[in-house]
User: Fold this.
Amino acid sequence: MDEKIDTLLKEGRVIQPTARTKAAAHIQDYDQAYKASIADPEAFWGGVAKELDWFSPWSKVLDWNYPWAKWFVGATCNIAYNCLDRHANTWRRNKVAIIWVGENGEERIFTYGELLRQVNRCANALKALGLQKGDRVTIYLPKIPEQVVAMLACARIGAIHSVVYSGFSAPALASRIQDAEARVVITADVGYDRGKTINLKGVVDDAVRTSPSVEKVVVVRRESPGVALAAPKEIDWVEWLQTQSAVCQAEALDAETPLYILYTSGTTGKPKGVVHVHGGYMVGTYITTKYVFDLKEEDVYFCVADPGWVTGHSYIVYGPLLNGATILMAEGKPDYPNPGRWWDLIARYGVSIFYTTPTAVRLLMKYGEDWPRKYDLSTLRILGSVGEPINPEAWEWFYRVTGSDKPIMDTWWQTETGSILVTPLPSVPLKPGSATRPFLGIEADVVDKEGNSLPNNAGGFAVIKKPWPSMMRTIYKDPDRYKVYWSTIPNCYTAGDVCRKDNDGYMWFMGRADDVIKVAGNRIGTAEVESALVSHEAVAEAAVIGKPHRTAGEAIKAFVILKQGYQDSKELVQSLKDHVLKELGKIAVPQEIDIVPSLPKTRSGKIMRRVLKAKELGQDVGDISTIED
Ligand code: WT7
Assistant:
């Protein structure tokens, strides 16, 4: 991490937008637009909201009862209506909405009209099962179009979707199904990962066994012969939709109706169910997609995220569809079957907007420049990065291999924020490694623990000073945990990131300030991994830290104290890794596990991860006066 911070601090380059980029941009003068938006944020957001369709108007843009926000008070709307009908009722009916490419090269194309019909069938099928407004549906699918269909179908009838990333294991899936008390689970027989078949149905079987709320399991069957289904609880997706009508009116919902729950990691072992709502979330994802990526009618938009994470929710599904964009959705990894995979897709489909992650860029960087050079990337116009800080080396490489004239939007945001909050716009001068400045209508700052603004270049906590439409409304079933975000530092929303602002007001995000780590951009709580380790029969205690990693940004390192009678061995360490894999999933498996005789603790018994980390990195351990041993 420190190496990363050092290079970030040394970084001084400024890259001006090309005349072409600037002339094309929706927002040509950021400073002026920003000032106007901040002078009257409610007028700004109200104006944005008017670009979308509402069934009935709001009486007030914002009702702010700290820390509880209601946006577009009294209005009714439906985000799925705005994603689909708003386009399908115009010439866009036959415009391509989604081009999907499977890992095996299979291609499926949905126009806005066809996507609407599919969503309507699915919405009617959900209704036929008795699903109603407010009921929860867990979606555990690989990156296939049915995922989008299922999400929008829930939204259409006012049901709440809870998408669980298909890399999570059965216990992790079960705890999310149970917390949400989902009535229906939608899954697939298998997913594909670098040519390997992943048995998703098996994971769901295990999870559902301990989840009494689940009445039905709908299965998308990709393999033939099809996996056996146990009727009447298990239903085949195709049969489920077949008999349903392709017409289904979108439910007129109060703007504050929950749209989805998305579980994310915090500082305790229990994931947090972040709740987003129809109205405000629709406004935030719509306008950020439009302005940040300068989206135009003829663009082909490619975001590499998985819909299992918030980037997939906001910037594969909702934001781009709200804008009537053509979206490329590709299953699989960037280097399978070879490291030309994404460059090939960009060339083949004429992608103009490409939104990816620093980890993927660093991975592709390892394979060398010859790969991107082989393909015609001239259709690219705007690039994006998200999920973790992008180091200037990776930034430079990405910029150079794509032609040195496509601006990179380094977008900073979180599951909780719903949409992008700090980011360049294409017309804004760039500094490699900086997410630049706040989006329109957003007041961001760097403060100390008491909430005082810090002078330029001092490191502190990133905060947001006013509510914004796409902010989470609560943590599902745990409002107190929601309140923490708005009470950790007085009078503002604390993001949990360390940041500094330079003399131009550019923000440099430097990683998490809490016990959350970002491994390949995936958010993992150290406490989650620790509790998985401790549930292994041989483990007495465990402590987990994030450690700098060349491609993944951070890697998981665990320190483990064994119970009496167990001995350090290669086999034991492997069985600990296998255990975490089984409990949580691949993304949470520690890269390194050290067996240790003791752990640094405070007198009250709290493990001092900070000390472990400093020692691991060979740094000064700082103040250890509270240490017990
Ligand atoms: C955390 C949120 C944002 C959607 C995907 C991740 C880190 C995110 C950046 C960026 C530096 C970033 C922060 C943040 N992060 N984007 N551009 N520069 N750090 O959402 O899983 O909720 O993670 O990701 O640490 O707090 P998430």
Observations:
- Residues 516-616 form a domain with the GMP Synthetase; Chain A, domain 3 fold (CATH 3.30.300.30).
- The chain is about 30% helix and 25% strand.
- The pocket of WT7 is lined by residues 264, 310-311, 386-389, 410-415, 435, 495-497, 509, 512, 518, 523 (CB under 6 Å).
